[in-house]
Design goal:
Layout lengths: L1 E6 L3 H13 L5 E6 L11 H4 L3 E4 L11 H14 L12 H6 L2 E2 L2 E2 L1 E4 L4 H9 L2 E3 L3 E4 L2 H16 L4 E4 L4 E5 L4 E5 L2 E5 L1 E4 L6 H10 L4 E2 L3 E11 H4 L10 E4 L5 E8 L3 E6 L4 E6 L8 E11 L7 H16 L5 E5 H5 L19 E3 L8 H17 L9 E9 L3 E2 L7 E3 L10 H13 L7
Parallel strand pairs: 1-2, 1-13, 2-9, 13-25, 21-22
Antiparallel strand pairs: 3-8, 4-5, 6-8, 7-16, 10-11, 11-12, 14-24, 15-20, 15-23, 16-17, 17-20, 18-19, 21-23
The structure holds flavin-adenine dinucleotide.
The site of flavin-adenine dinucleotide has 38 residues, from helix 1, helix 2, strand 3, strand 19 and helix 12.
InterPro entries: FAD-depend_C, FAD/NAD-bd_sf
Protein name: FAD-dependent protein C-terminal domain-containing protein
């Protein structure tokens, strides 16, 4: 039996183990999972932190090609482990089958973007690129149980052992691969690195040690979390998320990302700065919808640090907010007219008042990004009336980092999967990438 080490127990590790089980390869290995979190329910495990929105799409979630049947398999896996059961047969068509899943008599929250031709054409006509996709929303509250069920299933295999509370500090690639952890050293014939975005410190170390395995990154996505009343988005509620891209007048591409109907805005805390994010529970609904509006910023030589650029803008917002754990909140109207917000209007923030100050995000964004954001919202108004209400809220800064991509297939017996590989940024893509590596499918970049 080969010794297989898996660092991290998040979406991509889950996909990898699922792939091993399904292909029968599991019997060839003794598997050791090293996870920094205290136990399966510890909140650094992706399942608890994420919003639990799983989608099927070719247009978003990662920069690799995932065949539709693999994406459907991933959705099915999470639905089953979340206590949902199907109510129609697969012969009804894979999407009908997946959206028929129920739990306690309640259907899975499902959405299909741009299934309505009229709406598709309206967006298209106004210069937007609509991204087609299907959404299945498990809900943050249910994901705790999902994690527990998956953990218990994997634990039932005699050749899988978990070491929680074990942070990996360094790795020397072999084979054998040597892994240094907070509880001593391990040696493996094959190694899966699946530490997600929260494992960036380990990844930085490995990238420094093994520069030949790294493809340089040129991108960072910078923008705001935008919040408006639910009724503005109601006409699009059947698609759950309005995924669109738009080339603004600056030449930068701007997009809507991570929409949370009846959701809440939240902080995303890093070691020395804080950004914004959003989520929605399947039970606790609010009167606002939030989503990120992000400007994709691309740099070319000689500048090599897009991540540093994003971090510094986020820090600037924190400095202006007077605290490294606070962000700036402004009404859209004040932002557009270069005025500091002193008073809010009809839209009540869902982020708690301790976490923001009313301010002026114009002091944070370089003009090219600022102009792109305003141009995007103004054009969005043409297809979503109410998108540019004066008192809609924007929280600064939201940043999405692209990690440098890791090149697999250079070191024998090494699999770098999920968000830490730089190739994925979603539950679907991370899980599917893990699955495809485990079963030995070729993975192509987009
Ligand atoms: C607030 C939030 C909401 C999100 N909502 C969604 C959503 O609705 N839909 C969606 O598709 N995606 C969502 N995402 C993104 C999604 O969670 C990730 O893309 C996905 O989990 C990536 O999977 P992964 O396996 O690469 O990493 P993760 O799932 O993050 O797993 C990495 C694991 O590695 C562990 N780890 C890290 N460093 C070490 C170390 N040094 N030693 C040992 N263990 C370590 C971590 O504790 C973690 O458990 C969300 C992310 C956040 C932060």
């Amino acid at each position: 039996m080969k010794r297989l080490g898996i660092i991290g127990f998040g979406a991509s590790a889950i996909g990898f183990i699922h792939g091993l089980i399904e292909s029968g390869k599991i019997n060839n290995y003794r598997i050791t999972i090293l996870e920094r979190g205290k136990d399966y329910s510890h909140n650094t495990i992706s399942g608890v932190r994420m919003d639990g929105k799983i989608f099927i799409s070719h247009g978003m979630g990662g920069e690799i090609y995932i065949p539709l049947e693999i994406q459907a398999k991933t959705v099915e896996f999470y639905l089953k482990f979340s206590g949902y059961t199907p109510t129609v047969d697969k012969r009804e068509g894979i999407v009908n089958y997946l959206k028929s899943f129920e739990r306690d008599g309640r259907k899975i929250e499902f959405g299909e973007s741009f299934s309505n031709e009229e709406i598709y054409k309206r967006f298209y006509h106004h210069g937007f690129e609509p991204v087609k996709s299907y959404f299945f929303h498990l809900g943050t509250d249910i994901l705790k149980e999902t994690n527990k069920n998956i953990y218990e299933y994997f634990s039932s295999f005699e050749n899988i052992e978990f070491f929680f509370g074990t942070a990996v500090e360094d790795v020397e690639f072999g084979p054998p691969h040597r892994v240094h952890t907070s509880r001593g050293e391990f040696e493996f014939d094959e190694l899966v690195i699946a530490v997600g975005r929260s494992g960036h410190r380990l990844m930085e170390r490995l990238k420094e040690k093994y520069p030949q395995l790294v493809k340089p990154n040129q991108f960072v996505d910078i923008g705001v979390r935008y919040e408006l009343p639910n009724h503005v988005m109601d006409p699009f509620s059947d698609m759950y998320e309005v995924k669109v891209r738009y080339r603004t007048k600056t030449g930068y591409i701007c997009r809507i990302f991570c929409q949370n109907p009846a959701g809440k805005v939240t902080l995303e805390k890093y070691e020395d700065f804080t950004t914004v994010n959003g989520y929605s529970d399947s039970l606790h609904k609010t009167e606002n919808t939030n989503f990120a509006i992000l400007v994709t910023t691309r740099f070319t030589e000689p500048f090599k640090d897009p991540t540093g650029y994003g971090v510094n803008l986020a820090k600037l917002a924190n400095i202006l907010a007077g605290d490294k754990e606070k962000v700036i909140l402004q009404t859209y109207g004040d932002f557009k007219e270069f005025r500091r917000t002193k008073r809010l209007g009809r839209v009540h923030p869902t982020l708690d008042s301790e976490s923001y100050i009313l301010g002026d995000a114009n002091l944070v964004f370089p003009s090219k990004i600022r102009e792109s954001l305003v141009d995007f919202v103004e054009n969005l108004e043409k297809v979503i009336p109410g998108a540019s209400y004066f008192d809609n809220l924007l929280y600064a800064v939201e940043v999405k980092f692209y990690t440098n991509k890791f090149l697999n297939d250079i070191v024998e017996g090494l699999h770098v999967v999920g968000d830490c590989s730089g190739w994925t940024r979603s539950i679907q893509y991370a899980t599917s990438m893990g699955y495809m590596r485990a079963v030995g499918m070729k993975i192509q970049s987009l």
